[in-house]
Amino acid sequence: MTLLIGALTLGTILALLAIGVYLSFRIFAIADITVDGSLTLGAAVTGVLLVKGGMHPLPATGAGFLAGMAAGTVTGILQTRFRINALLAGILVMTALYSVNLRVMGRSNLPFLGATTLSTLCEDLGLAWFGAERIDLLGWEVASADLTVLLLMALLVAAVATALWAFLKTDLGTAMRASGDNPQMVRALGGPVEAYRVIGLALANGLVGLAGSLWAQYQNFADAQMGIGMVVWGLASVIIGEAMTGAGAGVGLAIAGAVLGSVLFRELVAIALSFGLNPNDLKLVTAVFVFAALILPDILARLSTARRREDA
Question: How many domains does the chain have?
Fold first, then answer.
């Protein structure tokens, strides 16, 4: 049960990453590599503020979100103002962020020992809510702190997903989605397509930075390597979500699908690890899964077309 709750918690936290990847990948059709750096940047900024600044976890977490937004803004400016290819702009910022993150942390790994984090606050909340350090849950004994973290992360992700859905339904959000679908039409109507892209990438990477901040507080350390390959993780979550909701689902359902995809994907990883998957192979397996998920719909469509022609 502890493994299950841990996997659910991490999958819920990384749902924010999945939502950010959904914004850049499905709204603007960009596989934004900045994610690999902005995740770590959010964790690094929060860690420094907690460990060296003694800041309360809530504003420190907010700072992680703002740091991710800053990274996304830089990527957007490189794309719109300097006309740099979207993929290359993300690679440039991601590469630069590796050094920035090391500068921010002052080392490659920053433990949060002795610092007050959201996880430590949840220990007190768990005692207050459940009245004991360990409780019985469906016949299994679990730590009240772990259950409290899971509940709070679920509430936070639900609030963020709802707020994002509401934002994308506003005039600005609708214009952003339209600029991603047909930038020429929006530009012809006088819409600032470049500004919409910068805002979208800033928001997407802000959510990724928030995920990094929460993840670091959950595992009690920030590491310079923690963001490597996370854009693939986000893509996997989005693809799983689309498989559950359908590729043509509305915005709200697509966001919910990304959240569910992240949780399910983390559970699949936990099951694979419990059956003996070498953790060193995890990134490779994830990449292969995303590759298969990307090409499978096209293969199935071709096979379906071929069968219809044969029947005709």
Answer: 1
